[in-house]
Amino acid sequence: MSLYYVQRSNAQRSTEGTRLTYSRRMSGVPRYDLIGMGYTTTRRPDPRIARSIDDALGASRTVVNVGAGTGSYEPVDRTVVAVEPSAAMVLQRAPGSAPVVRATAEHLPFSRGAFDGAMAVLTVHHWTDPTVGLAELRRVATGPVVVLTFDHLVHSRQWLVTEYLPEMAALDHGVPPPDEVVRALGGGSVAVVPVPADCLDGFCHAYWARPEAYLDPAVRAGISGIARLPRTTVADAMARLERDLATGRWHDRHGAALAAGVVDAGYRLVVSP
After folding, report:
1. Where are the domains of the chain?
2. Quick check: 271 and 145 in contact, CB under 8 A?
């Protein structure tokens, strides 16, 4: 899978488990304590996306993974410290995975420049204050900060949202656009992350070419944008999708797009060197 660049900023940096550690600055109930059980059933790293993240981390030997969840995309050949507020997610991490600090992005309990690099994968839209959290990433890393996020406008134009679950578009309307992520990190680049038709990581639009997968409750449970919606809303949408698949209506509308093998569903890799 190839990334292609859509934006670049020359701005200079301007921002200043399981071994488990608990940060006292964390408060409230983490979102994934409510919706995260069974997450590893469908959420696993796609090797093509993993390669892009690993390449972006460059020569970093020590890496902090913020919003680490169950540990997807954590490099195995580097020293990693994970930051994750949700106990439900921490409990699903594989034995022998990186040590975990229970904390939030907005209050990283590390000194300035404590790590060579930092990463955050599909997590910024869950943060209370993304601007503060991104500044914290930049503060604790002397080298590259790698953020996998999404462009909300492109994300909301995908068929799952426009035709079946338009309510999902309102959930993460506050996620910063990729160019704002770049500015918050003090400069960097944005690359499109195409989603292959056989994507292994079951995030929101991973099944764009396999629509029947969304009928599986386990698949939907691994997608926060669906898991946060009212059950009746989801049930009605899935009933319509099931009918459209049975009648061939879905394939009439979208079958031609399958030949491309990949789609731009809005996912973006931001790299601040």
Report:
1. 4-272
2. yes
Q: Tell me the whole-structure pTM to 2 decimals.
A: 0.85
Residue 24, Cβ density class (10 Å: 0-12 exposed, 13-18 middle, ≥19 buried): exposed
CA distance 163 to 46: 26
**CA 90 centroid distance within chain:** 16
Per-residue H/E/C for 10-79: CCCCCCCCCCEEECCCCCCCCHHHHHCCCHHHCCCCCHHHHHHHHHHCCCCCEEEEECCCCCCCCCCCCE
- pLDDT 10s digits, 168-193: 999 988 899 999 999 999 999 999 99
- Signed CA dihedral, 231, 68, 51, 41: sign only: negative
Q: Span 4-272: which CATH code?
A: 3.40.50.150
Helices marked H in 66-198:
87-90, 130-140, 152-155, 159, 178-185
> Amino acid identity of 99?
P
